[in-house]
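Record type: monomer structure entry
Structure origin: computed from sequence
Chain ID: A
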Amino acid sequence: MAMATGAVHQALVAAGLRTLAGIAVEAGDCRDIHHAAVLIGYGAGAVCPWLALETGMALTPTGGDRAASEYRMLKALDAGLAKVMSKMGISVVDSYRGAHLFDILGLHQSVVDRCFVDTPAPLSGIGFSELESHLAQPGSLRRLPFRRSFPTTAGCASARPIWPNRTPGSPQR
C-alpha cells in the first residue's frame, strides 16, 4: 500500500493537483504505528487500518463493548503517531505528510524513482518484474474474504481527522 500511496502522491504533485486532492488510504496491511507513519509520510492524509480495527473488535471478550475496543485501538494509534513525529521534532501531521523521511532498503532504483521520489535507497534490490512474478505465484497472497461490514465508529478516513481537537498551529498536548 505504501508503494501505491507514494506513486499516487507523486503523480498528483507532478500534475500540479496535489493541493486540490486528498489521499485517504483504506489499508488492510496497516497493522502497527510504523505502517501508518510510512503511509502518512508518503502522502496519505488519512489512514483507515480496517483489518487491525476488525481484529481488535473480534478479540473483544464476550459481552464487551466492541466500539470501545476500536476506540482504544485508535487512541493507541494516535498516541503512537504523535510519539513518532515528536521524536523527529514534528508537531503537526501536515508537516509529516509527504515528507519522505525514510530510507528504502531492498527495492530497485526504478521502484524508488516511481513510488518514493527523492528518497535515499542505499541498497538496491527487487524491481517491478520480481514483485509481479512473486504476486503472480499461486498462494503468494492470502486472499481475504469480501467484507460486507466496515468499522462502525471513527476508524475510517472520512469519519474524523487524526487529531480532532487540534487546529493547525495549536500547541501539542
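Annotation 1: The chain has two domains: 2-101, 103-138.
Annotation 2: The helical segments are 2-14, 33-41, 50-58, 66-87, 93-96, 109-115, 128-136.
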